[in-house]
Specification:
The protein is an alpha/beta fold and about 260 residues long. The chain has a single domain, classed as Alpha/Beta hydrolase fold, catalytic domain (Rossmann fold, 3-Layer(aba) Sandwich). The chain is built from eight helices and eight strands. Strand 1 and strand 2 form a beta hairpin. The longest helix has 15 residues. The two termini are about 25 Å apart. One of its GO terms (molecular function) is hydrolase activity. InterPro entries: AB_hydrolase_fold, BD-FAE-like_dom, GDXG_lipolytic_enzyme. It holds the Pfam family BD-FAE.
Length: about 260
């Protein structure tokens, strides 16, 4: 593994690189954390597993809210893609992305803007409309301790938490509703967007409404997508064992 490679000197942002025995494709693996916490180090186990399927894995850190509001995190991931595409690795035309929760949102953005195949596990999609439709929900941060010590697959597995969902969405944009409208990924669906694999649990932290809206928008533009809905409340990497093989198959089939 190549650890802490600096891809953005100005902001001192780093990424980790996991190399397989033989490179078949590349994947940008994006950590979650509601855009306000999290770290690439949480992705080590999943990254190592992906290398066994022939993926060169790039796991970046990115700027976090509230110090850095939208579009900072999105811009950072676009920069990661540009760095990888221009690198000496033999991955031209074979770059994909995978992320969970806020990382799923950023993975979707890469598909929409760079035209690459991507997968989202519990990606945060329904932003502006959801907030507008839930004025009664009082935003509240999830105060559970030891977030940084927990594996990604153990976090936010207890089902819907509208107060927390609203809190971190608004935190991402500094409570600015106009900025929230701009952060909505649905606005960036185009004829040039890449195919998407979208997984979500039926009763989890992230509402299903975003999944349905995104699939409809993609279909309208003729962009293929695949949806995997999972029983229960598990969130993101909590259902990795269920979604992993289907995710890998989709990404390899759509490169």
């Amino acid at each position: 593994m190549i650890k802490d490679y600096v891809y953005d000197e100005k902001n001192q942002l780093t990424l980790d690189i996991y190399e397989p025995n033989k490179i078949e494709a590349a994947i940008i693996l994006i950590h979650g954390g509601g855009w306000f916490r999290g770290d690439k180090s949480k992705e080590t186990a999943l990254a190592e597993r992906l290398t066994t399927d022939g993926f060169l894995v790039v796991a970046p850190n990115y700027r976090l809210a509230p110090d850095h509001l939208f579009p900072a995190a999105m811009d950072d991931l676009l920069k990661v893609y540009d760095w990888l595409a221009a690198s000496d690795y033999p991955v031209k035309g074979k770059i994909t992305a995978l992320g969970s929760s806020s990382g799923g949102n950023l993975s979707i953005e890469l598909a929409l803007q760079k035209g690459i195949p991507a997968a989202s596990w519990s990606g945060i999609i329904d932003l502006y409309d959801w907030v507008q439709q839930h004025p009664e929900v009082v935003p509240a941060m999830n105060q559970k301790p030891d977030f940084d010590k927990q594996a990604s697959g153990k976090i936010d597995q207890d089902g819907a938490n509208d107060a927390f969902y609203k809190w971190f969405i608004l935190n991402y944009v500094g409570q600015d509703m106009e900025r929230l409208k701009q952060a909505d990924p649905l606005a960036r669906v185009s004829n040039n967007s890449g195919p998407l694999f979208i997984a979500n649990s039926l009763n989890e932290l992230v509402p299903l409404s975003g999944v349905y809206k995104l699939q409809a928008a993609l279909a309208e533009k003729g962009i293929p997508s695949e949806n995997k809905l999972i029983k229960g409340t598990v969130h993101g990497e909590g259902y990795a064992e269920i979604a992993y093989q289907a995710t890998v198959q989709f990404l390899k089939a759509t490169i």
